[in-house]
Amino acid sequence: MSLFTINDEQLKIIIDHIDMKDIVKDRTYKLKLKKFVEAINGDTIHLKKDIHYGRIKDIIKMFEKVINKYCDVLEVDEKVYEYINQLESYIEKKYTIGNDIRNQDERYFEKYKEFKSIVNQNMKRQLREKQMWDAFFMTFIQKSGNFSVPGSGKTSSVLGMFAYLMAMKDVKRIIMIGPKNAFKSWKDEFDVCFGENIKRVSLDLQNVKNKKIALKYDSGNANLILVNYEALEGIGNELVDLIDDKTILVFDEVHRVKNPNSIRAGYSLNIAKVAHYVVALTGTPIPNGYQDINVLLNLLYPDDYNQFFRFSMSTLKNPTEEDILNINDKIQPFYCRTNKKELNVPEPNEDIIINIFPTEAENRLFEILFNKHRKSSFELFIRLLQLESDPNMLLQTIDVEKYKKILEYTNEDIERIDYIDYSNEIKPLVKSINITSKTERTLKLINKLVEENKNVIVWCIFRKSMDNFKAYLDDAEIKSEIISGSVDSMEREEIIERFKEGSTKVLITNPHTLAESVSLHKTCHDAIYFEYSFNLVHLLQSKDRIHRLGLREDDYTQYYFMQNIFMAPDGEFSLDRRIYDRLMQKEQLMIDAIENHKLEIMPTNDEDLKWMFEILMK
Fold this sequence. Notes:
This protein is an alpha/beta fold. It has four domains: 2-76; 109-343, Rossmann fold (3-Layer(aba) Sandwich); 357-431, no CATH class; 435-617, 3-Layer(aba) Sandwich (Rossmann fold). Helix 2 (27-33) runs antiparallel to helix 3 and helix 5 packs across helix 7 (154-169). The longest helix is centred in the N-terminal third of the chain and has 25 residues, at 78-102. Residues 441-610 form the Helicase C-terminal domain.
């Protein structure tokens, strides 16, 4: 009688009365079982340790089939079934615990008090009550998401988790994988939260030439290791070797790992498999629909996705109302979400909309552009933004890939567009405009705010717009600086510090560069939106640079939106107003989803563009 048993969590089959050569030559073994085998020693087949519990019963049946051919019987050790049941109940228990902690069930009050006491003993800055509950949730779920809105203190909650696990489980380090612009925030937050209680020893891999050597030899004493997503491909194995049950693995801005077939996702998933504690952070959990949660759930629970969650990609892409209820029911216990109201962050002032009526020359250019580009909403969108910023850009070919990246437009069907063949009328019109009406009005607003001794952040899309503002402000002797994608991390940090100190009065930047993990709320309360797209993620994250946890009760937050109004054949048309209205619709969708304890589904880019111009296209 052969035996299917388990020892030290490794499954094995002890073969009796059968030649092992016959087993390994068997067709069923070669086609279906060999891939699960780690080694064969004498009469014992050792199975791989990473076999999912959901496959074990099928493997038992297949081995029974093979062994029965040779007139033997396979006995299954009771310990194997106990092992399967234990693993099957693991995710169900997590589901129940997650729900209970999210709902602050009174059965957890004593444990929470103990947790809070230990965290407070180790942290210099005390967490808000809701942040503490989030830290408690992430600690005891072990692998979870935190989808709290930007500016609500997700980083601090993770540090609270670290404070407890360091004291109670001897956890030694956080490995944070995220965008480069998040590194400074993590260092600053660590210092503020712990002070002298826990001295930060960080390893910042973006400033290291040989990252493999640094991870191998310089990581021993580091309690905060910072890795950018772009570096994963070259150091994946080194990270796997470093991560153990004394490590908290954090994926910050995890929405950047959204394509399940990408290289970045592959390395992230491989690293997450070996981690005991995993936290996935994002203030924008599903900007591209429910399919984004595929990677997210595989990062947290790779062994349970197919058995417990079981969401097919086709269901995630086109969910019915019943699917949406099922998806949200399954995933809610595995993430926490806090909004600013729960943390008593002062409400921002009502947005100030500044309407601008372009000159006759600008309006004529609008008519020409509309007639030329009306068949391509994406192209028309880009050209109108250029018209409002600097008409000289209209005389250049559109770099489609560049603008798709800037606007995070994912449609792959856009052809190479816009060969230059404008009429003779357009060049004189462009040359007649020294400065656009929108730029001129924005400069007046900047000057007014600076005269009131206020720091100002100006949000743009185009690098050309940023350079123009810098030149105009230099002429006006107003100290300004630019942060764009070409500014390296060290210079970026220096610019931010000068802005915070007040030696730089105006910061000019774009959301896809500076819309994550930078806190400017202590010294800046005014933001001007010169250019903006229909990307809600960019808007929310840019707003949260100055509106976030830590504002005093008497602090104000003011956003200004510059809006050009053109004269179209059927009356007034404002691209800016259409974008703004669309963004407000999306923001309300998100608010409603949070209140209903659901993850929101946002319109696609194509739907946005169609909606943007539907008035003109009629």
